[in-house]
Amino acid sequence: MKRPFLTAVVALGTLGLALSACSPSTGNKSSESSAASAGDQATVTFRLWDDVAAPAYEESFKAFEEKNPGIKVKVEVVPWGDYWTQLPLDISSGEMADIFWVNSSNFALYADNGNLMNITKELGKDHDAWQQSVVDLYTRNDSLWGIPQIWDSIGLFYNKDLITEAGVDVTKLTWGTADDTLLPALQKLTEDANGKTADAPDFDAANIKTYGMNAQADMQAIYLPFLAQAGGLFQKEDGSFDFASDKGVMAFTYITDLINKYHVAPPAAETNTNGDLAREMFIRGQMALFQSGPYSLKTIADNTKINWGIAPLISGPEGAVSTSHGVVAVGNEQTKNREATLKVLKWLGSAEGQAPLGKMGVSFPGAVDAQDYFVNYWADKGVDVSVFIDAAAGKTALSPFGPDVNAGTEAFMPRLLDVFLGSVPVEQGLKEAQDAGNSAMK
Which CDD domains does the protein's record reference (predicted)? Predict the structure, then answer.
């Protein structure tokens, strides 16, 4: 799992996380009409952007088709890089899939335009229990607009050997308070090619062998949690950006100082253009701490030989505030196959329908009763994922919302990347980024 699902436009190289699902081409779109039928069998199309999750859905739909022989479900994978440009074109042309994945940054526009089925109206309360944080995220105008599918929160991956050698307790890392323990820990964990740590007077910042932690322009895993932990807001209630507040300046100053002042995090010149670099460095043993979500689990587990574990995310002045996000499956309001589509949607909302997502280790399922499958999958591999459950149940930052937030994010991102580079003062750069974002949303 390679890409995050918080927002589409942050794929400008600023987020290297989770559900990507990049398939080799876009040529796998069904040539059949989404309402096609063969005899008495209706075909319902289901679109997503993640080729890691696709096999789990194929498995799920096999069970569905056995129970519903009159309905066939066809899975379409459209790569992340094409997904959000193809989606509006297919909706306007009437060729969109009957059911498709969306994230929180994109659903509101389509809900407001009447493109999505109203789940509250169509299914009511007749469904299995769903992850409440995802339900809240996709509730707009007192109605739910999607079926929760997967969700995540943030934790701290750590290299057990490096933190033991440095004598760092990863369960007690705090920043922005009088007893800041994060910076001293990262200085101990950062080592140059001569074996000198970042707290030594002769530390060579131009020749670093091992970094302490990731501190890049990663919305989901880094700056939304730090911003919320400082007591700041990404957006106000009306949807306008508010990250250039005094508390926002405090949070972003701390993050960027880790890069440009203390040199305990990789340079933004590299992470701005390669969002996966920090994870790759952690996998190679070149980074001691990696703050990320369950979307990084499979990539780390399948590719590293280091001795690693997961701890709660770092805490700030307002405590350990995580981001908690999720993806939903939405129904196409213009489907020509409404009855069959609703049956598939109901299946996708059931613990039985989501079980393969957990059993195959894809992500935490949105159906509460299916989540133990994911927990058990990783427990069998010796990995305790309870920190992510605890993070989602605790304080969480509000994810990006509103019909125009993608346009706003795309507008502010270039200047925000300059802030991480250190090429513009933090306060000035945040103000200019916020103004650009808000102007784009008017």
Answer: PBP2_TMBP_like (cd13585)
Are 273 and 422 in the same domain? Answer: yes
> Per the domain annotation, does 28 fall within a domain?
no
Contacts 24+ apart (CB under 8 A), 417-424: 417/12, 417/14, 417/217, 417/268, 417/272, 419/252, 419/256, 420/216, 420/217, 420/255, 420/256, 420/259, 420/268, 420/271, 420/272, 421/268, 421/269, 421/272, 422/256, 422/259, 422/260, 422/268
Tell me the CATH number at 373. 3.40.190.10
> Do the domain assignments include residue 14?
no
269 plus 148 within the same structural domain: no
Question: CB of 152 within 8 A of CB of 293?
Answer: yes
Domain that holds residue 389: 42-153+325-397
In one-letter notation, the amino acid at residue 50 is D
Residue 130, both tokens: 């769903």
Residue whose tokens read 């760092």: 168
Domain count, the chain: 2
pLDDT in tens, 71-100: 999 999 999 889 999 999 999 999 999 999
Task: Report whether 152 contacts 363 (CB < 8 A).
Answer: yes
pLDDT at 1: 38
Beta strands in 186-344 (DSSP E): 191-192, 208-213, 287-292, 308-312, 322-323, 325-331
> pLDDT tens digits, residue range 379-393?
999 999 999 999 998
Same domain, 53 and 125: yes
Give the range among 74-78, 263-267, 273-277, 349-353 with minimum mean pLDDT.
Answer: 273-277
Closest to 419 measured CA to CA, from 407, 408, 411, 427: 427
Question: Is residue 213 assigned to a domain?
Answer: yes
The SS3 of residue 178 is coil
In a domain, 15, yes or no: no
The 3-state DSSP composition of the chain as helix, strand, coil percent (nearest 5) reads 45, 20, 40
Q: Does 29 score more than 60 pLDDT?
A: no
The reply to whether 335 and 319 lie within a common domain is: no
pTM for the model stands at 0.86
Whether residue 194 is found in the same domain as residue 229? yes
